[in-house]
Design a protein that fits this description.
With about 100 residues, the protein is of the alpha/beta class. The chain has one domain: 2-Layer Sandwich (Aconitase, domain 3), CATH 3.30.499.10. The chain is about 40% helix and about 15% strand. The chain has helices at about 25-30, 60-75, 85, 90-100, and strands at about 1-5, 20, 40-45, 75-80. Strands 1-2 form a two-stranded parallel ribbon. Strand 3 (about 40-45), helix 2 (about 60-75) and strand 4 (about 75-80) form a beta-alpha-beta unit. Helix 2 packs parallel to helix 4 (about 90-100). The chain is elongated, with a radius of gyration of 15 Å.
Amino acid sequence: MMIGTDSHTVNAGGLGMVAIGVGGADACDVMAGLPWELKFPKLIGVKLTGKLSGWAAAKDVILKVAGILTVKGGTGAIVEYFGEGAESLSCTGKGTICNMGAE
């Protein structure tokens, strides 16, 4: 798990880790080694099948998912992508999906 204070902290999800952005007070607690509590988030699984082809890009994947979930759908949740489509994405593509997913 990675804790960060930047709105782009979730970009590290492209490296296969849980990355959560927090406020300054929580970050200070974490750096001081104090226990940090998190309400157990809901988990949303997104199965990606096939591979991107032609003009399709990772950005198209997240734009479609964001359109389905809307703003409220992913709030307070961890969105996990899996399946052969997720495995075929580049690290940069995974980072793009994670980064834009925070929007």
